Amino acid sequence: MLKAQIVPVTSFSQNCSIIWCSETMEAAFVDPGGDVNKLLETSEKLGVNIIKIFLTHGHLDHAGGAADLKEKFDLPIIGPHVDDLFWLDGIEEQAAQYGMSGLRCCVPDEWLNDGDTVTLGNLSLDVIHCPGHTPGHVVFYEKNTNVAFVGDVLFKGSIGRTDFPKGNFNDLVSAITKKLWPLGNEVTFVPGHGPLSTFGAERESNPFVGDQVLAKA
User: Fold this and answer.
1) What DSSP assignment string belongs to 55-101?
2) DSSP the chain
3) How far is CA 178 from CA 31, 134, 181, 201, 214, in A?
4) pLDDT tens for the 217 residues of the chain, in order
5) Residue 190 · residue 148 · CB < 8 Å
6) What is the DSSP secondary structure assignment for residue 76, as one 8-state letter?
């Protein structure tokens, strides 16, 4: 069974998730944006064996700690989609602009595409390409627990910004409504920032992608 622990990292309070298979205790960091020592301390307390790094997209607060973790523990970086390469290449420049230290550019060992799967112990997570916030953004969905790790695609009461380079509002709304909503209202999602929610709750009340809002568009 999938288990998860959220660890807020960086000054942006980004939700890094430590996810693991309860049967094998093999684990992964999802979006280790920084505060590497904090992540390592938490994983040790959980008693899990970190073997992979999963990235939803290339923004510094989601990927800035991946290079250090890869180097120290020989962990493969998996994801996002190759269209986010320019964001990963620019992490150090972005970090300097925000006055954030210790964040580094990284190159994934494996790029992901829509329809791929990633494995962790006995777990299998579906990969869903959801462009709009960034062009190469992906979502990880574990069907048995009905949980999705959505990065900055969707938030409780909001959606990801689309005013960054190569962002696209229409693409984001399309990805949410055509790729995420069909997974079902009962899906619980872990966003990149803020509290958890469900797809059903967002369809009822989200001011950007709620059903009533889109019906009036």
Assistant:
1) -S---HHHHTTHHHHHHHH-PPEE---GGGHHHHHTHHHHHHHHT--
2) -EEEEEEEETTTTEEEEEEEETTT-EEEEE---S-HHHHHHHHHHHT-EEEEEE-S---HHHHTTHHHHHHHH-PPEE---GGGHHHHHTHHHHHHHHT--S------SB---TT-EEEETTEEEEEEE--SSSTT-EEEEETTTTEEEEETSEETTEE----STT--HHHHHHHIIIIIGGG-TT-EEEESSS--EEHHHHHHH-TTT-HHHHHH-
3) 24, 17, 6, 17, 12
4) 999 999 999 999 999 999 999 999 999 999 999 999 999 999 999 999 999 999 999 999 999 999 999 999 999 999 999 999 999 999 999 999 999 999 999 999 999 999 999 999 999 999 999 999 999 999 999 999 999 999 999 999 999 999 999 999 999 999 999 999 999 999 999 999 999 999 999 999 999 999 999 888 6
5) yes
6) P
